[in-house]
């Protein structure tokens, strides 16, 4: 038996239950991971609320964790019992003491990276990897705009951009968050709760605006993001923290300067073991060299996952939060 967070209906944090459960018999290609630390992500809130539908209810929650291999399926070749591993794209159910993860969604965790650090960076760091290095491969000297720069994904983006010689303008909602984003490597910070972002971007870029804007806030920042893009720039809309963007009039993209737009997800970039492990290797190298550090803003016992989600949704967290089983 093991303990996990489960939900049977969509709704607020009250639908999350901490229950004992019996993991299903291990599939031939699966690895049973004894979690030591679990990542808290905004996507977990979308699954709980029903914005993203889970495959079935009742359902476990969470896609990210780090721990030790407790058992392997009969056809698993790459992993052994006792090995340190981490994952970011597992089927829902990571909010748990034990989680069965398909072997092709696991990476080996270098000794230099702790379980807590791994749970803080796997999903968010791999996201930054594909956004900065694949969706739009940024070049040294470019100036880019990144919303919610003091969040979990945001603080990793500030560091990664700096490591690449890119000038990241980060938006945040408070002076304290501005300080964190600056400390992590943001070139400039704009408080979007009180400043005119488009006007500041125009000023900071000497009217050139940005070749790319990374927007995970969604509904509230959509118009602003378009206004911060140079002609033929790319809007990377990768999240919905304030609600999803709907009813887009394509003519708007013409009026704003023949804008390109993409709505990507990590699951289509880390879509096989080779891609996942290459992306993770790049992230781990930057961590080992000290260019990227995990900012763990809060740790919660697994049973307190509802409170952790409430803090994240209320914009009260900075950096990554983790759950400890
Ligand atoms: N597509 C992908 O592949 C992918 C992968 C990972 C994450 N994501 C997305 O990236 C975003 C960041 O994820 P995260 O887990 O690291 O979360 P996070 O950035 O730590 O938290 C979300 C942040 O968004 C900002 N925000 C702005 N308006 C908000 C609102 N109305 N409600 C709540 N927050 C609001 C807040 O920062 P301020 O207070 O500074 O505004 C808040 O701290 C999420 O939208 C997530 O879905 C996408």
UniProtKB/TrEMBL annotation:
Keyword entries, A-Z: NADP, Oxidoreductase
Any one GO MF annotation of this record: NADPH binding
Domain Enoyl reductase (ER): 11-323
UniProt xrefs under InterPro entries: ADH-like_C, ADH-like_N, ER, GroES-like_sf, NAD(P)-bd_dom_sf, QOR-like, Quin_OxRdtase/zeta-crystal_CS
Keyword presence, NADP: yes
Transmembrane segments: none
Reaction equations catalysed: 2 a quinone + NADPH + H(+) = 2 a 1,4-benzosemiquinone + NADP(+)
The protein's Enzyme Commission number: 1.6.5.5
GO cellular component: cytosol
Top-level taxon: Bacteria
One Pfam family from the record: ADH_zinc_N
Family statement drawn from the similarity comment of this UniProt entry: Belongs to the zinc-containing alcohol dehydrogenase family. Quinone oxidoreductase subfamily.
The name this protein goes by in its record: NADPH:quinone reductase
